[in-house]
Prior knowledge:
Blueprint: E1 4-8, E2 13-19, H1 23-28, E3 44-49, E4 55-64, E5 67-73, H2 74-86, E6 94-97, E7 102-107, H3 113-119, E8 123-126, E9 134-139, H4 143-149, E10 150-153, H5 156-165, H6 202-210, E11 216-223, E12 232-233, E13 243-252, E14 255-263, E15 271-273, E16 279-283
Parallel strand pairs: 1-10
Antiparallel strand pairs: 1-7, 2-5, 2-6, 3-4, 4-5, 7-9, 8-9, 11-14, 11-16, 12-13, 13-14, 15-16
Amino acid sequence: MSATTAYNLQSKKSIISFTGKDAANFLQGQTTCDVLSLDDTNSGFGALCNPKGRVISLFHLVKRGEIFYMTLSSDLSASVIKRLKMFVFRSKVIIDDVTSQFIILGVNEALPFVLENTLRPLANIQYTEQDNLALLLIPTSCTEELSHIFDIALNDNEWDKWLISACIPEITQETSEQFIPQMLNLDALKGISFQKGCYTGQEVVARMHYKGSVKRRLVSYQSASPFVIGEQLFTGTDTNSIGTVLNSIPSGNQTHTGLTVLKVPLINDQEILLKNNIAISILLPKYKLD
Length: 290
């Protein structure tokens, strides 16, 4: 049997721990997901937002014992820690970067129980119910076993292709604080709780859900032309941007693929002609959008 391919995400992801008796309530007041619903068997996907409801960072959160572990983009880790510490005040919460204690891997196939038992991962976090994409957080004490279990891939583009195919957003410094969570499909990805109560940015997020409509949505695209992260897209007849590029990577055969936050009236178009006669093909996510 061939070894499972795992993608080394150590350069892309960081892990922050939250300890102390007030950690759960503190995180509940800072994130879009329902932190109080977490236990040792599940995980949460969500966002940290600014007061205007714009996503600072996306994350996956797990609770193990009395400790919470947040996995997020490495280039945002230091700024997120600094920001969250500003809101601790008198709460009994300690926030630390514990990335060095773990190996962070991405996989795209379900792990047999025997592998899970051998690796003893801190967490096996599945992205959606429609695929096998998952993050594995493995203690560094298990490093020796990894080479016997996985073919470790170092090609970031391959992992990014899987995320793009599944229409899973990743926020980095270039795109931080640009989007409201629903624009990144967090409502469809179960990354927002609309029953949990107040958190930073909650008023804007809730207003869009209950009183407004989502005017832009995340979709994947293919094009013969590369784009820059954060680049605005324009058609030849529209002076206003129709979308924002979240990422762009080569996908072979002189094509490029990526994710874009696109105006909702356009997401069902199979192809859009941009300025300078650049064409992009639009692909809707496998998961259901409202």
